[in-house]
Write a structure and sequence with these properties.
- It is a single chain.
- The chain is of the alpha/beta class.
- It has a domain at 79-200 and 237-360: Rossmann fold.
- It has helices at residues 3-30, 53-61, 107-110, 118-122, 126-129, 144-154, 205-211, 219-226, 232-238, 241-265, 291-302, 310-318, 338-360, and strands at residues 99-104, 132-136, 162-168, 187-190, 193-196, 269-275, 307-309.
- Strand 4 and strand 5 form a beta hairpin.
- Helix 6 packs parallel to helix 10 (241-265).
- Residues 3-17 have low confidence and may be disordered.
């Protein structure tokens, strides 16, 4: 080998080893114990919060603020105020002879902290509670896939319920995830049909992460993609955001259609409740829009679905003087305020009572 060839080989080796050495050093810092490299340890620097299991795997590995469920449910991932075995609501005995109103959804339905929730408001209202009783099947962090599965497994416990199928606009993003605050179910569209993926559930998040740890070809590369180091348009193209968005629409459309079919096949009265605005800086409550809203608005209209569009409720209420986002979304919890819950509860009551009058008339 000539001196020239040796120098070329040394240069090529250096060019290869330098990125590898940098990646190794970066991973060592990223996954090191303690807070020494705390500024590196945010999952959002390496993965998409809305679309990638990697974000949530990193969240628990680094670790983050959420705690995984101690006893994962083998179908739903985690549960709310209902039996793990039968899916029957814990408060079903309080129905007595009243008509059940079943509210499904995520934490916007389940509510956060001490904020009076829909069951508190409506079941204490004399007009509503004389003939109806609301059972809240909302579960924090649910996607519409989990909501569909819960509806399928619980609804036949009840005779002619009025059903409120609720979702936050961002819930449709969760259909791509098989891990969020813990393992969760995930659907795929196969030959145009909705199929539940056969993912085995582990005993706990630790076992799951030991078997399926966070993996990335290069965290330095992902830092460039997600950490704001590249122009937004280039980053979006490299992340294939348009393709990811279309996958969400394709799966979500099938999930929502399946939920609609479950309700119509039983000839039930129902309404879809769409929540808007989960961040104080989000303009969606006051007129802003995005692809999620456009997709949902079009799908609901095309399928003639009875709908409570929370943005419309806000628009009417703003004319009465409630003009701040904080009137509707609590800046600390990033969830609806009591005022917003009462507005929506009133609308739910009107829909439920109205459907009862039509049925009896």
């Amino acid at each position: 080998m000539t001196v020239k060839h040796a120098r070329l080989l040394l240069l090529a080796t250096s060019l290869f080893l330098s990125p590898v050495a940098a990646e190794v050093a970066y991973r060592t810092a990223l996954f090191s114990p303690g807070d020494r490299f705390r500024t590196l340890k945010h999952p959002g620097l390496y993965a998409d919060y809305f679309s990638e299991d990697l974000y949530w795997k990193l969240h628990f590995t680094l670790p983050g603020k959420y705690e995984p469920p101690r006893r994962p449910h083998p179908l739903l991932g985690w549960v709310g105020s209902f039996s793990r075995a039968t899916f029957l609501h814990h408060d079903f005995r309080r129905l007595k002879r009243r008509r059940p109103v079943l509210l499904y959804g995520d934490s916007f339905a389940a509510c956060i902290g001490d904020t009076p929730c829909f069951q508190d408001i409506l079941n204490e209202d004399p007009k509503f509670s004389s003939s109806h009783y609301l059972l809240n099947y909302g579960v924090g962090s649910y996607g519409i896939d989990q909501t569909l599965l819960l509806l399928r497994n619980s609804i036949d416990h009840f005779d002619q319920p009025f059903v409120v199928f609720s979702l936050l606009t961002f819930d449709i993003d969760r259909c791509l995830l098989s891990f969020r605050i813990g393992q969760k179910p995930r659907f795929s569209v196969v030959d145009g049909a909705l199929e539940l993926e056969a993912n085995p559930f582990y005993a706990n998040a630790e076992e799951y992460l030991a078997a399926q740890p966070p993996r990335a070809f290069s965290y330095l590369y992902r830092r460039a993609l997600f950490g704001g180091l590249l122009p937004a348009r280039i980053s979006a193209a490299l992340r294939r955001e348009k393709l990811t968005r279309q996958r969400k629409i394709d799966v979500s459309q099938k999930i929502l259609s399946a939920a609609l079919s479950e309700l119509r096949a039983r000839s039930l009265d129902f309404v879809f409740l769409v929540f808007h605005g989960d961040r104080p800086t989000d303009n969606s409550l006051f007129g802003g829009t995005d692809w999620r809203e456009e997709f949902l608005h079009d799908w609901l209209a095309e399928n003639n679905v009875p709908t409570i569009w929370s943005k419309d409720i806000v628009a009417k209420n703003r004319r009465l003087g409630f003009t701040n986002v904080d009137d509707y979304i609590d800046p600390k919890s990033l969830h609806p305020t009591e005022h917003f819950n009462r507005l929506l509860a009133r609308e739910i009551s009107q829909r439920a009572l109205g459907s009862q009058r039509r049925a009896s008339g």
